[in-house]
Design a protein that fits this description.
By secondary structure, the chain is mainly beta. The chain has one domain. The two termini are 13 Å apart.
Length: 142
């Protein structure tokens, strides 16, 4: 499901500085950062503050900096040869907003973990806006 796993996150993970199952993670909704004019910038994005002012959406019943991911868990599949991050689905109730994707970041230092592309504009008008994570997880590392 992830469009881009951030390079800084990869390095911090390899140094043993990330614990996705115990770090507090947040998910924030973003505008169309995935357009052709911005794809070269993805290599330079390390922290939520690198994109929040430009790419975070606004909308009714959406709070800046997003929501905390609840019940995060890390699992492994020896038969499929991957590790996976999962969490509960996230819902913004009675929301009016449009988003093209989301950013997942660590709350403590705002380290970007990944950006997820919804594959186009997703909207809600005075209704629930829900991110339903894949049954295979939010992020899979092979």
């Amino acid at each position: 499901m992830a469009h881009a796993v951030m390079n800084k996150f990869k390095a911090e993970n390899m140094k043993g500085n990330v614990a996705l199952d115990s770090d507090t993670l947040k998910v924030a909704l973003i505008d169309n950062i995935f357009g052709s004019s911005s794809t070269d910038q993805l290599d330079n994005l390390d922290y939520w503050d690198d994109i929040s002012a430009t790419w975070e959406i606004t909308g009714t019943n959406y709070s800046a900096n997003g929501e905390t991911l609840l019940n995060t868990a890390v699992s492994e599949s020896d038969s499929s040869n991957w590790g996976s991050l999962s969490a509960d689905n996230v819902t913004w109730s009675n929301a009016t907003l449009t988003s093209y994707g989301c950013a997942i970041y660590r709350s403590s230092d705002r380290l970007l973990v990944c950006l997820i592309d919804f594959g186009g504009a997703k909207s809600a008008t005075a209704g629930d806006f829900t991110i339903s994570w894949s049954a295979n997880g939010i992020l899979n590392l092979t």
